[in-house]
Design brief:
280 residues; MetI-like fold
């Protein structure tokens, strides 16, 4: 009777070359990291960062920056979602009336402006020129939320328009056939299905907003980037703060991406459950 081969031994025998290459790469990375650590005196740099971050309470400014980044990204996204949905709905309406055609032209100009200019230009022009001309005195944080929301609305309008057009036209026709008006049919039937189709793309828009908040320091608002810039300037040490800043952004973006994936899975399970019930 033959002995059963050990799966570990079989795996090592089959992949020994791959394992050797990985070990060599890890060892070389260790040597590189050690060399950089010694050359740039990371221990001393870390002590300076630690002292200014904890001892001098630099973390409080970072917490404020994280809160402001979250407010600008989240509230700006929902403002953009409302504007984008409205614009997308106007664009898919058949242009039978003059009012609809004029509204579509206005929407096209709006989208062209916000998609055709950098967000930093929009922020500077909006905060330092347009708002004062209009006689509006809005704090820096509120101005950033408003301008980011207007910017996001232009991008979400195109995302939403694609989502609406991906829904079977028969859905809208069926809703109208049972007596629902066009606006009600869009809100209750078409748009919910469109959102399911474009959820990953909307998640990318939230991530883009989080990263774009790095420019709000131009108008005096405090975000994650501004907090680390101040920390680096106060400590005269830039390497560690900027490395930590980059890692923090990576963690935030990964968390958002993970949340979007969970929402996608939940929607798929919900649809599968409805499908089972309907067949039952």
């Amino acid at each position: 009777m033959e002995k059963t081969s050990n799966p570990v031994s079989a795996f090592l025998k089959k992949h020994w070359m791959d394992i050797l290459v990985i070990l060599i790469v890890v060892f070389l990375l260790f040597l590189l990291g050690r060399s950089i650590f010694i050359r740039f005196n990371f221990a001393k740099k870390w002590d300076k960062f630690y002292n200014h971050f904890f001892t001098n309470e630099g973390y409080k400014r970072l917490l404020t920056g994280m809160q402001n980044t979250g407010l600008i990204a989240v509230i700006g996204f929902f403002i953009g979602l409302a504007i984008g949905t409205l614009i997308a709905t106007i664009k898919v309406i058949p242009p039978y009336h003059k009012l609809v055609r004029y509204a579509q032209k206005v929407c096209n100009v709006y989208v062209a402006f916000f998609r055709g200019t950098p967000i930093v230009v929009q922020l500077l022009v909006g905060y330092y020129i347009l708002l004062p001309i209009m006689g509006l005195s809005i704090p820096a944080l509120g101005s950033c939320i408003l301008i980011f929301g207007l910017n996001s609305g232009a991008y979400i309008s195109e995302i939403m328009r694609g989502g609406i057009q991906s829904v079977d036209p028969g859905q809208l026709e069926a809703a109208r056939a049972v007596g629902l008006s066009f606006p009600v049919s869009m809100v209750k039937v078409v748009i919910p299905q469109a959102v399911k189709n474009i959820l990953p793309t909307l998640g990318n828009e939230i991530i883009a907003l989080v990263k774009e908040t790095a420019i709000v320091g131009y108008v005096g608002a405090v975000d994650i980037t501004k907090a680390f810039q101040d920390l680096a300037a106060n400590s005269y040490e830039y390497m560690i703060p900027y490395i930590v800043m980059a890692l923090l952004y990576i963690v935030i973006v990964a968390a958002i991406a993970g949340l979007i994936r969970l929402m996608e899975k939940a929607m798929k399970k919900s649809e599968a459950g409805k499908g089972v019930k309907s067949h039952g």
